[in-house]
Structures are given as structure tokens and as C-alpha cells.
Design brief:
heterodimer; A: 306 residues; mainly alpha; 74% helix; 0% strand; B: mainly alpha; two-stranded antiparallel sheet; 21 helices; 73% helix
Chain lengths: 306, 502
């Protein structure tokens, strides 16, 4: 539709056409273009599992084989967020979309925090937690400033690392039909290092300092406050605390609960343990020396907009 | 020879890294070599303590500027760096921290049966973060370390030995840990928002720059409330104090010592270092509010203490009362009040920790914390009775002990500001005497309860040696506090003048 109304699909050309072109909700100069952009946005939001269009995520995450789940909880997020940044910030820069993304972000965060509390299957919980995390990433995206894009890039990177870590752990325990969270019980006694890894990753997801998840969240909230999206930051912070509850529940189950049947875990293969070690190292020690990474993402964000 | 030592450049970052080095060394030692683990843990903490004493010796009393300042670059773009320094206010908190950690390690010497190595590592990491909190002069990094103390503290809480008895089920421990964590986190995220707001509006989180920026009064009020949300949970002030008795009851002895000795001070230190200097108008605006909450807290918790039946809960509630005394002193905003509050904080760090150690000694022997099972201990545990008497009198603020000096100065300061508050707070002192003496009476004097307890043993050498530094510290601070106060005069005078409070 965009092509139909503007005659171009090149990003740069679209950017030139749309500067100064007011597309408001009521009385757009060309409602066709508005619909076109809206459809593009909805399509993207579907694939990212942002909130009004997230219904498919928990069921699909739970039903697919874990390897596939791991892949499509990481890869589409990176690629589609990058794509959205190009499309919406480079080409269609307009406050109308900002409101749409604000709403998606708030709803994702709230849903991700609240719905995950009632889950008792691991992969569904991870699905909801990734919905929540996408909500946080959207905070960075919806304020269209350079800090916003920078925080989005940092958040995506750290999210990828944390998700790799979590899914590696889930895969490592897969041998014995690891479906329910309660199966994790007493992991601390049978496999203490894996338990520590999982608890650090969970704390990082919750955004507790001094881990990497905190760095990404603080920068996201900083970007939100910098552009005046106070409600977004406030809701982000409150849902962060709510979600902390069920992340700590993981830790509690591992260390304090005894499962009904003691499950014996086979040791994992070497590549997985290497991967877990690298991502864990990064999550724990990112805090000490984040500046090269921040500089790189700052340059990336600048190069997008200039 | 002393000249040679004095020319050494003592590094604050070295002080923060020292326990971390110890914990890294500990992490590679296998779990079976317990004596080596304990030895390394104790040596690391003692070395850190001596290191921190060097800072005290080399501290210059005549200036209010930050000393031993170091900057480590962290994030260049938003101007956030590891900006470390000490002044008169934070010096003693660092010394208190490094003093209490070896004691905690000694306490866990024989009573922790499992996960010994993780216990030591958690304590050393905790120590390192706590020293970093007190030295950090950058808002965001202060917040980071302020919160990171939660993770290692969360660890030792459930690691006390499993009781095959009626009390202390796992469910309660987990609930206590949850409460501790979530209460503190919820309050703190508002502070995070406030800090990020300050960063985005002024472009820096460096304290020395922020001390000179002026915020408008309305903005100050909002930011002050956000900071208050975080600090008041830690203090703890009255609507948010519920986590403290639960956490104390479920924690092992060493965990209680750290919790009461240092973690509570983080909140009031935050008030003193950040809320009061950066937001002076908002502080003046909210002073009646803080006074009201503190006075209610003192009277309410003192009255509640009288009806408690669990030894640790009694001391936990008395901790709440003392810390609210401290906030009264701080918000009186004159030199006597603030000096009294810092002295009471230090003294509370010593006295409450010692009381928890006494209770821990009883608990190690008889595995129960209920008062009704204890009685007539003076005949079988005379050394313990003497030491317990000393700390009970110190808790009561008997003249001659450090808490008397602290409370006296606080009342002097508060009386100048608002005599009604001072009178009510003094009432709290009387109630403090009531519950302390009654507790001592019930536990130590009176008849035996042979139905419940048959075997007794007095304190062993390790425990007496643990208590001795506390006794020395309390008497020293009580009889000649000028040694401590002289380091604080200039910094506090600077603080009062900065906010134009006089």
C-alpha cells in the first residue's frame, strides 16, 4: 500500500517524502498511507510478540522443541527490532506511532509481569518473561531519541545473552523431561554450579544490580526519562519489581524445595558448558567495564540518524 | 619507620578490592578443607580491618573536603564514574563495617555445618559492597551497590542449620527472605527513577556537582519523596518496618549481626549523605513528617517489644526504636543532632550486634529463642550474665556507654528544634529501659526451668574474645567520645552550613 501511494519503497526516499508530512489519526492527508504504515507496524508487532498481538507466543513456545524455541525467541527479536528502528525512526518519524508503541510497551510489561506469576511450566514462563522484556525494549524504542535507540541496542544485546543462557540451561536439563518448574527442585544439591548459573541469570532478568540486566534496564529508563515519557518509566519500574517475584521463585525452588521424585541429571556436553560459562561471565562482569560497549552502541545509534 | 609507612599511598579502591580478592581465592579451594577456608576468610577480613584503620589514622580532621578521592572511569557519555572518597561522615561507617565482618566470620566458626565456603564468600562479597556503598560519591553507583548488598545477604539468611523442632520452618525462612527482598526493592526502584531523572536533567550524577546545583522546590519535594521511599524501608521507618523482625528471626546469628550492624545504617547514611544536602528545602518541608513517623515508631516499637516472646524479635524491635531515634537526630539539622545521630548509629552497630551475639550464644546451646524457656542463667553461665548485663545496660543508654552520648546529643539537638518531639523521644528511652531490664530479668535471674533446659555451658574462649572488642568500643565511645567526634566536626558543620539550616 505504501508503494501504491508513494511510489517508492526505498527507505531514504520514504524519509524524504515523510519529513514534514503530518500524519495524524484524524484527517490524514492520505489515509491510505496511514493504513499502510499501521499494517506494517502490526505485522512487526506480531512477530515480536508485543502485547496486543502476543497470543501465539506462550503456546508456541511451549509446544515447540526447545532448540526451535531458543532460536525464535532470540533471532526474530533482533532482526525485527532492527528493522523497526530503520522503518519507524528513519523513514516514518512521527509522534502518532509513538503513542501506539507506548501503549504496546506498557501493556507488554504489565502482561509479562502479571501473567508469568501463574505459570508452572518452564517454557510458558520464559515466553511471558520475554514478552515482558520486549515491553522494556520498546520503552527504548518508542522515545525516538538517540539515547532511546542506544538503550534499545544495549538491551537487545543483553537480552540475547541472557536468553541464550536460560535456554542453554533448559536444554541441558532436557534429557529428563524438564517441563514443569517444580522439576527444578533441589537442583542446588545435585548440580550446584548450574543452580548458581540459573539464579544469577534470573537475578539479571529481574534487573537487580550489579548484573547486566540492571545496566540495560537503567539505561532504558534513563532514555525514557530523558524524552519525557515518565509514565513509561514508572510502569517499567513497578513491573520490574513485580516480575522480580517470580524470578526469585526460581531461586527458591532450586534451593529449598524437594521434588516429588528426585531426578538425576546427566552432565551436559562441552559446547553447552562453554556457552554457559561465557554468557555467565559476561552477565556477571559486564557491570565492571561497560564503556566500550556503550560507546559502540552510541556510534551505531548516531549513524542511524545522521 | 612510621614515616616510611605513612608515605605509602593508601588506596580506597584497594580497600574495596581486598575482600573480593579473598573471596576469589576462597572460590578455588575445595569444600573439604574447612580449616583453610576459615583461616583465609578470617585473615582477609582482619587485613581489611587493619587497612581501614590506616585510613582513620591518616584522616585529616581540619577539612570538610572528601579525602582519598579516586576516580575510575565507567561510562564517559552520561558522566557516571566510580567516584570514591571518604569524609568525616562516612569514615566511621567504613571502620564499623570492617570491624563487624571478622566478628561475623568468627561467629560462624563452628555453627555453620554445610555450605561453609559459600557462606564465607557471601560475607566477603557483602563486605566489599558495603564498603563501596559508604565510599561512593556518585549517585547511580551508590544506588547500584546499595542494592547489590541484597544478593549476598539473601544468601546467608536461609543457611542456618536445620532445626528439628517446632520453630523456624523453611516456609517462614523463605517468606522472610522474600519480604526482605521485595520490600527493599520496591522502595528502591523509585529512587532509581529519581536518580535517572536527576541525571537526565543535570547531566551528571557526581555528588560534588549535584551539591551545588539548585533544584526548584517542587522538584526537590518529588525527588525527596522518591529517595525517602528507598531509605525509609532500610532504616526502617514505621509503615515499612515489618521485614526487619522477620528477617532477624530467620537469619543465622552472623546474618543478624550484619543486618543490624550495617544494613540498617545504609538507610540513614543515605539520608545524611544524599537527601539532606541535595534537597535542603524539601528536607525542611518534610521534617515534621519524619519527626511524626519517628516518634510513633519509637513509642510503638518500644511498647510492642514489651510483649514479644522471642529473644531475637525483642532485640530487632529495639533496633527499630534506636534507628528512629537516629532519624530524629538527623532531621533536627543542627550539629549536635547530627553528631548524636552518627554516634548513636555507631554505638547501635556495636550494641545491637553484641546483643544478637549473646542471643546467638544462647541459641547455639539450647536451640530455642523463646524467653519462657530461659531462667536463672546467672548460676550456670556467670560470664555470659555479666557480658549480657553490660550490653543490656548499653542498650538502655546507661551513662558511660556510647549510646547515652548519642541519645543525649540527639535529644539536645531535637529539643532546640521541637521540644514536644524531644519529650516523646525521651519517653522512648524510658520504655527502652523497661523492656531491656525486663528481658534481662526474665532470662538471667529468677528460677531455673528444669523442665526445659537441663544442660548448660558457659561461654567458651572464642566467644569471650568476640565480645571483648565490643565492650572496649562501647566504653571508649562512652567515656571519651571526642576521639570519634573530632573527625566529624568539620564535615557536619559543612553539611549544616551548606543547607543553610542554622
Amino acid at each position: 500500500m505504501i508503494y501504491g501511494f508513494t511510489g517508492v519503497t526505498n527507505f531514504e526516499e520514504l524519509a524524504k517524502i515523510f519529513t514534514g508530512y503530518k500524519i495524524t489519526l484524524f484527517g490524514a492527508q492520505s489515509s491510505g498511507i496511514f493504513m499502510g504504515i499501521l499494517f506494517i507496524a502490526v505485522g512487526f508487532l506480531f512477530k515480536i510478540t508485543a502485547v496486543p498481538f502476543h497470543m501465539w507466543a506462550p503456546d508456541v513456545y511451549e509446544g515447540s522443541p526447545t532448540l526451535v524455541t531458543a532460536f525464535f525467541s532470540i533471532a526474530p527479536k533482533i532482526s525485527i527490532l532492527a528493522n523497526m528502528v530503520r522503518v519507524f525512526i528513519y523513514s516514518f518519524y512521527d509522534p502518532t506511532w509513538q503513542q501506539l508503541f507506548f501503549f504496546c510497551s506498557i501493556a507488554s510489561m504489565i502482561l509479562g509481569a502479571l501473567a508469568a506469576m501463574a505459570q508452572n511450566k518452564v517454557k510458558r514462563l520464559l515466553a511471558y518473561s520475554s514478552i515482558g522484556h520486549v515491553g522494556y525494549l520498546f520503552i527504548g524504542f518508542s522515545c525516538g531519541t538517540i539515547e532511546g535507540i542506544q538503550s534499545l541496542l544495549i538491551g537487545v544485546f543483553i537480552y540475547v545473552l541472557m536468553t541464550i543462557n536460560v535456554f542453554a540451561i533448559v536444554l541441558a536439563l532436557r534429557q529428563n523431561r524438564f517441563k514443569y518448574i517444580a522439576d527444578l527442585g533441589a537442583l542446588a544439591k545435585t548440580n550446584p554450579i548450574l543452580a548458581i548459573t540459573l539464579s544469577i541469570t534470573m537475578f539479571s532478568y529481574a534487573g537487580i544490580p550489579p548484573l547486566a540486566g540492571f545496566c540495560s534496564k537503567f539505561y532504558l529508563f534513563f532514555a525514557a526519562l530523558g524524552c519525557g515519557a515518565y509514565l513509561l518509566a514508572l510502569i517499567g519500574v513497578v513491573t520490574s519489581v513485580i516480575s522480580c517475584f517470580y524470578y526469585i521463585r526460581f531461586v527458591k525452588i532450586m534451593y529449598f524445595d524437594t521434588p516429588k521424585t528426585w531426578i538425576l541429571y546427566k552432565p551436559m556436553d562441552r559446547e553447552k558448558s562453554l556457552l554457559l560459562a561465557i554468557t555467565l561471565f559476561f552477565i556477571t562482569f559486564f557491570f565492571l567495564y561497560p564503556s566500550p560497549f556503550f560507546l559502540v552502541t552510541h556510534q551505531m545509534a548516531l549513524s542511524l540518524c545522521l | 619507620m612510621l614515616q616510611f609507612l605513612a608515605s605509602f599511598y593508601f588506596n580506597l579502591s584497594g580497600l574495596i578490592l581486598c575482600p573480593l580478592l579473598g573471596s576469589i581465592i576462597l572460590s578455588v579451594i575445595p569444600d573439604s578443607r574447612i580449616r583453610l577456608i576459615r583461616g583465609i576468610g578470617l585473615c582477609t577480613s582482619l587485613i581489611t580491618f587493619l587497612y581501614s584503620l590506616f585510613f582513620w589514622i591518616q584522616f585529616d580532621n581540619s577539612t570538610a573536603k572528601f579525602q582519598f578521592v579516586e576516580t575510575i572511569r565507567w561510562l564517559p557519555y552520561p558522566n557516571i564514574h566510580f567516584y570514591i572518597g571518604i569524609d568525616g561522615i562516612s569514615l566511621f561507617f567504613v571502620v564499623l563495617t570492617t570491624f563487624l565482618i571478622p566478628i561475623c566470620i568468627l561467629v560462624g566458626w563452628s555453627s555453620i555445618k554445610s555450605y561453609k565456603r559459600e557462606y564465607m564468600i557471601a560475607f566477603l562479597i557483602c563486605e566489599s559492597f558495603m564498603i563501596a556503598v559508604f565510599c561512593m560519591l556518585d549517585l547511580l553507583l551508590f544506588y547500584v551497590f546499595f542494592e547489590s548488598v541484597l544478593i549476598p545477604m539473601l544468601g546467608p539468611i536461609p543457611y542456618s542449620p536445620i532445626i528439628i523442632g517446632v520453630w523456624g520452618s523453611r516456609q517462614r525462612k523463605i517468606q522472610a527472605a522474600y519480604q526482605f527482598f521485595l520490600y527493599t526493592l520496591l522502595g528502591s526502584v523509585f529512587m532509581l527513577l529519581a536518580i535517572l531523572f536527576i541525571l537526565s536533567q543535570t547531566g551528571s550524577t557526581d555528588l560534588q556537582i549535584l551539591l551545588t546545583t539548585e533544584f526548584s522546590e517542587r522538584r526537590q519535594i518529588l525527588l525527596w519523596i522518591a529517595f525517602f521511599a528507598s531509605f525509609s524501608v532500610k532504616v526502617p521507618m514505621i509503615p515499612f518496618h515489618i521485614w526487619l523482625p522477620e528477617a532477624h528471626v530467620e537469619a543465622p546469628t552472623a546474618g543478624s549481626v550484619i543486618l543490624a550492624g550495617i544494613l540498617l545504617k545504609l538507610g540513614t547514611y543515605g539520608f545524611l549523605r544524599f537527601s539532606i544536602p541535595m534537597f535542603p528545602e524539601a528536607t525542611l518541608y518534610f521534617t515534621p513528617f519524619v519527626y511524626a513517623l519517628s516518634v510513633i515508631a519509637i513509642i510503638y516499637t518500644s511498647l510492642t517489644t514489651i510483649r514479644q516472646i522471642d529473644l531475637k524479635k525483642i532485640i530487632a524491635y529495639s533496633s527499630v526504636a534506636h534507628m528512629n531515634f537516629v532519624t530524629i537526630g538527623m532531621f533536627s539539622l543542627n550539629i549536635q543532632g547530627i553528631e548524636g545521630s552518627i554516634l548513636l548509629m555507631l554505638s547501635h552497630g556495636l550494641v545491637s550486634s553484641a546483643l544478637f551475639l549473646c542471643v546467638g550464644a544462647l541459641y547455639d546451646r539450647h536451640k530455642t529463642r523463646l524467653v519462657k524457656y530461659y531462667g536463672g542463667l546467672v548460676s550456670t553461665m556467670p560470664m555470659f550474665s555479666t557480658i549480657f548485663l553490660f550490653f543490656t545496660l548499653a542498650n538502655m543508654s546507661l551513662p558511660g556507654t556510647s549510646s547515652f552520648i548519642g541519645e543525649f546529643l540527639i535529644l539536645v539537638g531535637a529539643f532546640q528544634r521541637n521540644s514536644l518531639v524531644a519529650t516523646l523521644a525521651a519517653l522512648g528511652m524510658i520504655l527502652g529501659a523497661a523492656y531491656s531490664l525486663w528481658l534481662y530479668n526474665r532470662v538471667i535471674f529468677g528460677n531455673f526451668k528444669p523442665k526445659f533446659l537441663q544442660k548448660f555451658s558457659d561461654l567458651n574462649r572464642r566467644e569471650v574474645l568476640i565480645f571483648l572488642p565490643f565492650v572496649v568500643g562501647i566504653i571508649w565511645m562512652g567515656v571519651y567520645p571526642e576521639v570519634f567526634l573530632e573527625c566529624m566536626h568539620t564535615s557536619i558543620g559543612n553539611l549544616v552550613q551548606h543547607g543553610k539550616f542554622d
